Amino acid sequence: MSLTKIIVTVGPAVEKENILSSLIKAGASIFRFNLKHNTFSWHSPLIQKVKKIAKISGQPIATLLDIPEANKKNFSNRKYISLATEQEADFLALSFVRRKKDIEPFKTQAKKFSLAAKILAKIETRQALDNFEEILDSADGIMIARGDLGLEIPFEEVPYYQKKIIKSCAEVGKPVIVATQMLESMIKNSFPTRAEVSDVANAVLDYTDAVMLSGETATGKYPLKTVLVMEKVCRFWEKKRPPANNFNFKLSHQTAAVCYSAYQLWMSPFCQKENIKAFVVVTKNGMTAHMISRLRPNLPILALTNDKKLRNRLCLLYGVTPLILNNRECDLYGKRNSADIEKILTCAKKGGRIKKGEKVIVLYAEDWGTLGRTSIVRVQEVP
Question: In the predicted model, what is the mean pLDDT of the chain?
Fold first, then answer.
């Protein structure tokens, strides 16, 4: 599977369980529900159906609720927050965010409802571009909604801002999605245009976390083939692009610095000779996974946690395969001995990315009392 994540929009074309199951097998990681269309009574059972199919498949899957009119007053926000809480959504994407103040009411309401979902800001106006730094600081991630953005600014500027936004997100370790019209012609045709293939390839070359399909899967004639095309293009270009050397990665805490060191270790002649197959990280709140993912290694990142909600949210991060590590298998918060490491790697094998005898780079912390204290990096053979 590609390391770049694929988001599919759910609609009438993919309502059936067998189609949803096929999309997961083809590489879909996140299912988007556009609340601008249809009713809550239509979306709710479909969200549950996706969760059911994900459980059957054994694959971690996230749900994303796309909320229209994010700049409305609090009374309008509550119905969306209530739905998200009821359905245990993993992400909320807020439309037409123009400033930090458009995000804060949702964060306040989410806290009142004890909602764990992360908030993504959709960038689709000139004002959002002007206020991007404060929006990025407030939001948990960004969606580049190129359709509406292309109507707000000159079309030739859209690729420039796409690259700039992706770079800014990666530097601070927040996920970013490239959305809209990526394989638009496949709504009606079974093959993409060459321009569309180039568009997907350029998003990968820009180092995005995820690419998104909208009408292609919601109402298109070829939803499964569209996902297969997307995955194939992403996987090819991940192998062809150079390392992300022109980014100014912030190393403002211990985990960030240790993860950067682990990445440099992987890039070393020694590890290239050893043919390292994956990073394996043990994470309490996702920070270690974020800090490795943002460096965009051409290598799977197997993230082990005992938090099921965190597991789902990690589905959006580039390269990350999130897995549940039960406390009975290994004490997630204790100091590590050789038996613990063996249990961690045995669990990591369940992700299907590594096999016995292969070598991986393992990252974990021995001080769980403070956020950002990943301290151990080791090259380990998979038992």
Answer: 92
- Per-residue pLDDT band for 78 (boundaries 50, 70, 90) equals confident
| This model's pTM is above 0.85 | yes
Q: For residue 188, what is the domain's CATH number? A: 3.20.20.60
Segment 216-242 shows an average pLDDT of 97
Handedness of CA 291, 297, 303, 309 (dihedral sign): positive
Spatial distance between the Cα atoms of 77 and 100, rounded to a whole number of angstroms: 16
pLDDT at residue 74 greater than cutoff 70? no
In this structure, are 151 and 223 located in the same domain?
yes
What percent of the chain has pLDDT above 90? 77
Examine the pLDDT at 371 and tell me if it is beyond 80: no
Token representation of residue 355: 């096999």
Q: Tell whether 168 is covered by a domain.
A: yes
Q: How many domains are contained in the chain? A: 2
Q: Residues 199-206: contacts with CB within 8 Å, 24+ apart?
A: 200/230, 200/233, 200/234, 200/237, 201/233, 201/236, 201/237, 202/159, 203/4, 203/162, 203/178, 204/4, 204/233, 204/234, 204/237, 204/238, 204/241, 205/237, 205/241, 206/162, 206/163, 206/166, 206/167, 206/178
Residues 61 and 149 both lie in one domain: yes
pLDDT at 239: 95
**DSSP SS3 for 116:** coil
Q: 212 with 265, same domain?
A: no
For residue 304, what are the domain limits? 254-381
Cα distances from 235 to residues 5, 137, 159, in angstroms, run 10, 30, 21
In a domain? residue 71:
yes
Looking at residues 172-179, what average pLDDT do you find? 97
